[in-house]
Protein backbone atom coordinates (compact mmCIF):
# COMPACT_ATOMS: atom_id res chain seq x y z
CA UNK A 1 0.00 0.00 0.00
CA UNK A 2 3.00 2.31 0.46
CA UNK A 3 3.53 2.34 -3.31
CA UNK A 4 -0.06 3.49 -3.80
CA UNK A 5 0.32 6.40 -1.39
CA UNK A 6 3.67 7.34 -2.94
CA UNK A 7 1.99 7.40 -6.37
CA UNK A 8 -0.96 9.44 -5.10
CA UNK A 9 1.28 11.96 -3.33
CA UNK A 10 2.17 13.74 -6.57
CA UNK A 11 -0.38 16.19 -8.05
CA UNK A 12 0.58 15.40 -11.64
CA UNK A 13 0.00 11.68 -11.10
CA UNK A 14 -3.38 12.46 -9.53
CA UNK A 15 -4.25 14.50 -12.64
CA UNK A 16 -3.23 11.59 -14.86
CA UNK A 17 -5.54 9.32 -12.86
CA UNK A 18 -8.35 11.88 -13.18
CA UNK A 19 -7.84 11.92 -16.95
CA UNK A 20 -8.12 8.14 -17.01
CA UNK A 21 -11.40 8.17 -15.07
CA UNK A 22 -13.14 9.06 -18.33
CA UNK A 23 -11.67 5.97 -19.98
CA UNK A 24 -8.53 4.55 -21.42
CA UNK A 25 -6.09 6.81 -23.25
CA UNK A 26 -2.96 6.31 -25.26
CA UNK A 27 0.38 7.56 -24.01
CA UNK A 28 0.29 10.10 -26.84
CA UNK A 29 -3.11 11.43 -25.79
CA UNK A 30 -1.92 11.78 -22.21
CA UNK A 31 1.28 13.49 -23.38
CA UNK A 32 -0.82 16.12 -25.17
CA UNK A 33 -2.70 16.85 -21.95
CA UNK A 34 0.37 17.55 -19.80
CA UNK A 35 3.14 20.09 -20.50
CA UNK A 36 5.91 17.68 -19.49
CA UNK A 37 8.88 16.15 -21.24
CA UNK A 38 8.48 12.57 -22.43
CA UNK A 39 11.00 11.36 -19.86
CA UNK A 40 9.18 13.10 -16.99
CA UNK A 41 5.82 11.72 -18.10
CA UNK A 42 7.37 8.28 -18.52
CA UNK A 43 8.62 8.48 -14.94
CA UNK A 44 5.11 9.28 -13.72
CA UNK A 45 3.71 6.33 -15.70
CA UNK A 46 6.35 4.05 -14.17
CA UNK A 47 5.37 5.06 -10.62
CA UNK A 48 1.66 4.56 -11.38
CA UNK A 49 2.39 1.14 -12.89
CA UNK A 50 4.60 0.13 -9.95
CA UNK A 51 1.71 0.96 -7.61
CA UNK A 52 -0.58 -1.09 -9.89
CA UNK A 53 -2.90 1.91 -10.24
CA UNK A 54 -2.84 1.70 -14.03
CA UNK A 55 -2.62 -1.17 -16.46
CA UNK A 56 -1.15 -0.94 -19.92
CA UNK A 57 -1.90 -2.65 -23.17
CA UNK A 58 0.17 -2.48 -26.32
CA UNK A 59 -1.92 -1.85 -29.45
CA UNK A 60 0.24 -1.69 -32.52
CA UNK A 61 2.73 1.07 -31.82
CA UNK A 62 0.61 2.67 -29.09
CA UNK A 63 0.60 2.02 -25.37
CA UNK A 64 -2.88 2.31 -23.87
CA UNK A 65 -3.35 3.21 -20.19
CA UNK A 66 -6.42 2.57 -18.07
CA UNK A 67 -7.25 2.63 -14.36
CA UNK A 68 -6.90 -0.54 -12.33
CA UNK A 69 -10.00 -0.04 -10.20
CA UNK A 70 -9.46 -3.21 -8.16
CA UNK A 71 -6.44 -1.59 -6.47
CA UNK A 72 -8.54 1.41 -5.44
CA UNK A 73 -11.14 -0.96 -3.98
CA UNK A 74 -8.43 -2.82 -2.02
CA UNK A 75 -6.98 0.42 -0.64
CA UNK A 76 -10.41 1.69 0.42
CA UNK A 77 -11.19 -1.62 2.07
CA UNK A 78 -7.87 -1.52 3.96
CA UNK A 79 -8.51 2.05 5.11
CA UNK A 80 -12.02 1.18 6.31
CA UNK A 81 -10.59 -1.80 8.22
CA UNK A 82 -7.89 0.38 9.72
CA UNK A 83 -10.27 3.11 10.82
CA UNK A 84 -13.21 1.09 12.02
CA UNK A 85 -15.15 -0.68 9.32
CA UNK A 86 -17.09 0.24 6.24
CA UNK A 87 -19.35 3.29 5.96
CA UNK A 88 -22.38 1.00 6.04
CA UNK A 89 -21.42 -0.27 9.51
CA UNK A 90 -20.65 3.13 11.01
CA UNK A 91 -23.07 4.53 13.56
CA UNK A 92 -25.25 7.27 12.20
CA UNK A 93 -25.34 10.49 14.25
CA UNK A 94 -28.63 11.06 16.09
TrEMBL record:
Residues 1-87 form the HTH arsR-type domain. GO terms for molecular function: DNA binding; DNA-binding transcription factor activity. CDD domains: HTH_ARSR. Pfam families: HTH_20. Keywords: DNA-binding, Transcription, Transcription regulation. InterPro entries: ArsR-like_HTH, HTH_ArsR_DNA-bd_dom, HTH_MetalResp_TranReg, SdpR-like_repress, WH-like_DNA-bd_sf, WH_DNA-bd_sf. It comes from the Bacteria. This is DNA-binding transcriptional ArsR family regulator.
